[in-house]
Amino acid sequence: MYKIISKKLVVPKEFDVWVEAPRVARHVKPGQFVIIRTNPQGERVPLTVADYDREKGLIRMIFQTVGKTTAEFADMNVGDCLTDILGPLGTPSEIKNYGTVLMVGGGVGIAALFPIIRALKEAGNKVYTILGGRTKDLVIMKEECEKYSDELLITTDDGSAGKKGVVTDAMVELAERGVKIDQSWAIGPSIMMKFASLKAKELDIPMFVSLNPIMIDGTGMCGGCRVTIHDQIRFACVDGPEFDGWGVNWNEFMNRMRQYKDEEKMSLEKYKAEMGEE
Amino acid sequence: MALDIAPKRLPVPEQSAEERIKNFNDVVIGYSIEEAVAESARCLQCKNAPCIKGCPVSIDIPGFLKAIKEKDLEKSWDIISQYTNLPAVCGRVCPQEKQCEGVCTVGRIKGYEPVSIGKMERFIADWKAEHGSKVAPKVPEQTKGNVAVVGSGPSSLTVAGDLAKMGYKVTVYEALHAAGGVLMYGIPEFRLPKAIVRREIDNIKALGVKIETNVAVGRSVTIEELQSHFDAVYIATGAGTPHFMGVPGTSLNGVYSASEYLTRINLMHGYEFPKYDTPTKESEKVVVVGGGNVAMDAARSALRLGAKSVQVVYRRSLEELPARIEEYHHAVEEGVIFNWLTNPVEYVGSETGNIVGVKCIRMELGEPDASGRRRPQEIKGSEFTIEADTIIEAIGQGPNKVLLSAFQELKLNKKGYIDADPETGQADPEWVFAGGDIVTGAATVILAMGAGKKAAEAIDKYITEKKAAGK
Ligand SMILES: Cc1cc2nc3c(=O)[nH]c(=O)nc-3n(C[C@H](O)[C@H](O)[C@H](O)COP(=O)(O)OP(=O)(O)OC[C@H]3O[C@@H](n4cnc5c(N)ncnc54)[C@H](O)[C@@H]3O)c2cc1C
Ligand SMILES: Cc1cc2nc3c(=O)[nH]c(=O)nc-3n(C[C@H](O)[C@H](O)[C@H](O)COP(=O)(O)OP(=O)(O)OC[C@H]3O[C@@H](n4cnc5c(N)ncnc54)[C@H](O)[C@@H]3O)c2cc1C
Ligand code: SF4
Ligand code: SF4
Ligand code: FES
Ligand SMILES: [Mg+2]
């Protein structure tokens, strides 16, 4: 069960894997995620389902190694099995024909954005996509996103690909060109989603963001994933992960992401020592 | 009335308070055979046996006690296991003082304590596991029909075991990676060792029940799939969604629901971090809000994780405390401090967003409310602050929603729980049965099991009749 079928390094520290998970593959929709464990003493960590093959019973995940569990996942090989996969979880994205949509992605968040882009295109939308990254090599899934976008804009901090700048600059550029957006999504690092939401509000564009707070069960049972949206507590694993970007309490959200910094660091160091790495 | 029995029950050996707050091992050590035999002799073998009526699964209590007295422990086990699939669990966590022991004839005599029924039940279950004969149970042929059970808490395990014994093919679906429901993720190791839960679950599997973990019904499997593959479905998804008081500061770092705190510790073994990957925070000063079993478990877990002080804040008084009395006594012995008639009004944070204190207000009891308990009211101007680096809210839970939100046709009651017949568990649509906390709201293990027992019979009747009608 949950066997790794293929694995490749996309950019430094980001892996693209296909794993057997027939039940998830059969039912997953864009915007949903799974909870995995890499070993029987492992923690439960959420990863977005970036793609799926319903016939073969496979799901695709793209993840960045940031700590112990993702490092351990990265050390696993084709043929190895994950201990657990639960899903699909979360409320799917609201896919329909809005008219014109704007899709903003950054970092590994592009993996989560991709299935939504594809579904929105298939639903008949005109799709503008902005992908951003620090440098050229960090902008993943360009071709796949392009295939389902009417126009793809890229921004990099150092100008090595597309325009030099950040995703909000490209949002402004589209607005200045007079492109009228009916609905938008932003998925990426918290700080990117925060500024994209602020800009969207300024431009009067409704925007969904996909929040990735610390989760445990992923089924609404612990409240650890709570976020505040328009002054109300919501559980990201069941009420989200997508919420109205205009209403997110970003400071609180980002602060809660840091809760276990010290413990996470210790856990990663211990793992590396055990693996004989630096 | 002069009776030929000891007025007091035989005290059960326990770990000392100083010792046990340093470990997560079972607080109660349990009776030896000699002690159990002596205690069983206190049972009067009442003809009308009020204790049986006090037990939601109607265990033949005088029967199993008599067998202990006669030192026929194997027979005692056989009697108990006819009625319950989870004796080692119930013997440990049942609110016995309100159930079987609460109505025991001996306890009603002035100066006498009831027979120690729960501890004896636990004794037999533990004895059987360690010393009893290990004949695999006969697995009945699974020919009567197919039943799906959603969730794997005590209610589900009861329905599954009983239906398997009757000859049904039963598949249990559990969303988490481990079966057992609250027994696994909520009630701590020191009250209910997880090895014991696993052992009782293995006994149920040995009856032919199939348990599939990592399946969230409504997501991993749809309701339509269930309906087309099974003759009936039993839903016992529990009341696991934590409520928050909603006071300012609820999202500060260091504020937990008891569900999160306990899940990290129990299901995820956070107390063994970093051997296990899920972290818990070291705390110094912990405040727990609430007065039920969940609050006691959170408070006592915090002590075991090394907290220097643990205070419970409860808005009513000791008299209204809903926790099992044994848990309250254990908590006091272990050093938990209780602030009666007190309620939090605000969590105070530092500049870095961490909790540093809780502002509380004193309460007084006013007129009785709908539940018959006197309603607590704030005393104006009585605010004060308790320093804290961790707050754990244990103020109650609501229904688990994953299944409900995927099953719009299922009839719910006004409070959002499943509307099921209290006698049969049958819900609307008719092929659905339900029981446990998802019907009653957060209650007890034994009530959840009782509902499972009744439902197993009703499901048998429903499927048998349906098949006879050729449907
Ligand atoms: C709905 C959702 C979808 C996600 N999808 C993806 C994805 O497609 N690709 C991807 O690379 N990452 C994704 N993430 C983030 C991913 O879960 C974390 O990077 C991962 O848990 C880090 O684990 P670690 O042990 O390797 O790192 P750690 O060192 O333990 O943690 C690094 C940081 O990740 C966050 N984190 C830690 N534990 C958890 C947890 N249990 N749940 C959520 N966040 C946590 C914390 O902010 C922490 O500081 C998603 C998160 C959520 C909530
Ligand atoms: C900390 C704590 C301490 C307690 N202490 C005591 C005590 O001392 N004595 C006592 O009698 N009672 C106690 N209780 C209450 C008791 O545990 C519950 O009343 C009892 O467990 C309810 O059983 P249940 O079968 O209805 O559901 P639960 O035990 O709640 O199990 C429900 C299960 O269903 C699963 N589930 C939910 N949705 C889905 C889905 N869609 N698909 C698949 N699976 C799903 C959940 O993951 C869970 O495992 C305590 C409760 C808590 C939280
Ligand atoms: S199951 Fe509970 S109520 Fe029944 S005999 Fe055992 S302890 Fe008493
Ligand atoms: S009521 Fe008490 S004394 Fe009477 S049969 Fe039951 S356990 Fe024995
Ligand atoms: S992860 Fe536990 S409630 Fe969302
Ligand atoms: Mg981690």
Automatic annotation (TrEMBL), chain A:
InterPro entries linked to this entry: Cyt_c3_hydrogenase_gsu, Dihydroorotate_DH_Fe-S-bd, FNR_nucleotide-bd, OxRdtase_FAD/NAD-bd, PyrK_electron_transfer, Riboflavin_synthase-like_b-brl
Superkingdom in the source lineage: Bacteria
Keyword Electron transport annotated: no
Domain Dihydroorotate dehydrogenase electron transfer subunit iron-sulphur cluster binding: 212-248
GO molecular function annotation: 2 iron, 2 sulfur cluster binding; flavin adenine dinucleotide binding; metal ion binding; oxidoreductase activity
CDD domains: DHOD_e_trans_like1
Family matches, as Gene3D superfamilies: Nucleotide-binding domain of ferredoxin-NADP reductase (FNR) module, Translation factors
Coiled-coil ranges from the UniProt annotation: none
Cofactor remark from the record: Binds 1 [2Fe-2S] cluster per subunit.
Record domain Oxidoreductase FAD/NAD(P)-binding: where: 103-196
Positions contributing to FAD binding: 62-64
Descriptive protein name: Oxidoreductase FAD/NAD(P)-binding domain protein
From TrEMBL, chain B:
Protein's recorded name: Glutamate synthase (NADPH), homotetrameric
Dihydroprymidine dehydrogenase domain segment(s): 20-132
Domain FAD/NAD(P)-binding: 146-452
Coiled coil: none
Pfam family, one: Pyr_redox_2
Organism: Aminobacterium colombiense (strain DSM 12261 / ALA-1)
Organism lineage: Bacteria, Thermotogati, Synergistota, Synergistia, Synergistales
PANTHER family (UniProt xref): GLUTAMATE SYNTHASE [NADPH] SMALL CHAIN, GLUTAMATE SYNTHASE [NADPH] SMALL CHAIN-RELATED
GO molecular function terms attached to this record: iron-sulfur cluster binding; oxidoreductase activity
